[in-house]
Amino acid sequence: MHHLNYHHLYYFYLVAREGSIAKAAKLLHVTPQTVSGQLSTFENQLGYSLFDRINKRLYLNARGKVSYQYASEIFHKGNQLAEILNNSDEVNTKEFVIGITNGIPKVLFYDFVHATMRRYSQVKYVIKEDSFDGLLKELAINAIDFILADRGIAPGTQISANSFFLGESSLSFFSKSPLGEGLQFPDCLNQMPLLIQGNTSGIRHALTSWLETEQLYPKIVAEFDDTALLKLFGSEDFGVFCAPSAISKHVEEQYGVHCIGNANTLNERYYAITGKSRADYTISKAIVEAARGILA
Question: Most-buried pick from 31, 34, 75, 188 (CB within 10 A)?
Answer without folding.
Answer: 188
